[in-house]
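The material for today's practical consists of a large collection of protein records. Backbone structure tokens are a discrete shorthand for how the chain folds in space. An example says more than a description, so a record of this kind follows:
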Amino acid sequence: MASATDTDFMKMALSLAARGLGTVAPNPAVGCIIVKDGRIVGRGWTQKGGRPHAETEALAHAGDAARGATAYVTLEPCAHHGKTPPCAEALIAAGIARVVGAVSDPDPRVAGRGYEMLRKAGIEVVEDVCETQARDLNRGFFLKVMEERPLVTLKLATSADGKTATQGGRSQWITGELARARGHYLRATHDAIMVGSATAIVDDPELTCRLPGLEQQSPMRVVADGRLRLPLTSKLVRGARKMPLWLLSSPGGDTARRNAFTECGVDLIDVPPGSDGLMDMKIAMQRLAARGITRLLVEGGARLAASLMRARLVDRIEWFRAASIIGGDGYAAIAPLGVDTLDKMPTLALTRTLTLGEDTVSSYVVRG
């Protein structure tokens, strides 16, 4: 049975797990704390690339002190042999006496087997401590395993009346320096960042994380470009050999154009059209998940955002609003959704609002 102390230690383990977000795909971000006689003797979190696992790190930190201790793990310890031995076996070998877990692993290779292995070894197991928080932290991993798609976070940066640019197309910078820094932090915590071709052409972005100390956590760069309109001279293409670039494109097309992108180091991912003749975003998300992406940040533009919203693929929205108004002749953040009655509107649940200078950022979960 879990105690208040168990909850407190699990919250610490969840804080450690969050350090891995954006760097551990296709693995989940896991945290582990080892406690003996009320004192933390070991801690760890999943390392870059998904290995070593959190339990391995924490056990190495604890050393002999792990014997007879309690391990707090934010995801059920793995029970299968992959590139590393099972973490459940490592906990048993270290002499851990009690394991407190937050949530069961949805991976069919684990799915209860980790807990079962521990119990058979005589270890006391307590499950589902801080389960909601743990499931939310690794929502992308759960979606990848269960629905074969990543978690999709839509980032919007607008004026107070929801416009992304003036009537002349000017958009830099609507929000201030603090808001832009927060946006770069979002990039660092996601596996991939995606924009539409129009945004890539007009803004000519690099799509990297430029926060001091987090430059190495820039996400995979993805452009939805069905007609391969992106200029070969763009910053994205010119930097493709140093920082990988994936283009989601329609099958076929001009062979010479496709070859030119390939020669520049760009990886083309073919996505067939849906019933509306446009790129099928559900298949696009499946293709990204198959490549290990669990957390996708979408930064623009309006048509891409609408396409994902219509397909019910947006899970979260990070909405940055400036203390300014552009007016009805500005560019809307989201293209038409075809909503003709109020009951068809996508609905949101506000989870947090931050003030960043004169700007605000509101975090939402998309209900449906």
The first helix runs from residue 4 to 17. The first strand starts at residue 31 and ends at 36. The CA atoms of residues 142 and 265 lie 31 Å apart. The chain is about 30% helix and 25% strand.
